Amino acid sequence: MSNKTKKSTGGNGGGLKQGRQQSHDSQDYSSFKTVLYYCMLIVFLPVLTFFVLKGFVLDRFLDISEVKVNIAAAVGAVVSLHIALALYIYRAYFGASGSKASKAD
Amino acid sequence: MSTEVTSTNPIYGPFFGVMGAASAIIFSALGAAYGTAKSGTGIAAMSVMRPELIMKSIIPVVMAGIIAIYGLVVAVLIAGALEEPSKYPLYRGFIHLGAGLAVGFSGLAAGFAIGIVGDAGVRGTAQQPRLFVGMILILIFAEVLGLYGLIVAIYLYTK
């Protein structure tokens, strides 16, 4: 009787441990996905903005000088970079507090 | 092709512009690499005990990477304006060298600051989570040092 109870509790504990391991894995995977997404955004968005803005502004307004086009493209790239960084910090600050609360149990 | 080499357009005029483009990216990348490595050791030490804080603690590494993007922007701008000596006065070479050095050394200083602040801030955040807001503020002030260099470099570039 006691042996049976022990066995059943042991099996239950193993299942719980496995479930916790799985939840840890899925949590790690989701946080990795988020970090990867924002890092790609921060790395590629300014480069893309620079060249798209340069080509687009050159095509649209051919009358302004090339120096001004370069300046506009550079300023646009830096502004887009800071917008992406602000999004990441916002997500890290407010998203991480939610995941911490779920982890507390 | 007529190579008009005068005293205002000497053959070594573009040398200064090339050195400006190179120093913009070299020194910015040096600062960004130091910032990444120094705050990376802090993250590695902290994540052993508090792995759920990794997303918050990546922020210094991202900010150090942004320093390198400042240098990249200025280096691309300068490299796009380089010409052969007959169309590139020595004055423009000096302007471009100044722009490259401005963003390069500002990036180096900002990268050092981000590395040291990121290391200590990430280790401290693991023990007292309320330090996070302070760490972000200090990191932003360190980041702005590099941005000042970028502003001066772009202003020089328009001369």
Structure description:
- Chain A has 105 residues and is mainly alpha-helical.
- Chain A has one domain (16-93).
- Helix content of chain A is 92%, strand content 0%.
- Chain A is built from 2 helices and no strands.
- Chain A has helices at 2-60, 66-103.
- In chain A, helix 1 (2-60) packs antiparallel against helix 2 (66-103).
- The relative contact order of chain A is 0.09.
- Residues 1-11 and 98-105 of chain A have low confidence and may be disordered.
- Chain B is an all-alpha fold.
- In chain B, helix 1 (13-47) packs antiparallel against helix 3, helix 1 packs parallel to helix 4 (90-127) and helix 4 (90-127) packs antiparallel against helix 5.
- Chain B is elongated.
- Chains A and B meet through helix 1 and helix 2 of A and helix 2, helix 3 and helix 5 of B.
Short structural summary:
The complex is a heterodimer of chains A (105) and B (159). By secondary structure, chain A is mainly alpha-helical. Chain A has helices at residues 2-60, 66-103.
Main traits of this protein?
heterodimer; A: 105 residues; mainly alpha; 2 helices; 0% strand; B: 159 residues; elongated
Q: How many helical stretches of chain A?
A: 2
SSE string of chain A, helix = H, strand = E? HH
Contiguous runs where pLDDT drops below 50 for at least 5 residues of chain B: none
Q: What is the mean predicted local confidence, pLDDT of chain A?
A: 75
Shape of chain A: rod-shaped
Report the radius of gyration of chain A as a whole number of Å.
25 Å
Tally the beta strands of chain B: 0
State the end-to-end distance of chain A: 32 Å
- Global morphology of chain B: elongated
From the N-terminal CA to the C-terminal CA of chain B, the straight-line distance is: 28 Å
Strand fraction of chain B equals under 5%
Structural class of chain B: mainly alpha
Count helical runs of chain B: 5
Average pLDDT reading of chain B: 93
Helix content of chain A: over 70%
Order of SSEs of chain B, N→C? Answer: HHHHH
Strand content of chain A: under 5%
Family (chain A): Belongs to the VMA21 family.
Organism (chain A): Drosophila gunungcola (fruit fly)
Membrane topology (chain A): Multi-pass membrane protein
InterPro entries (chain A): Vma21
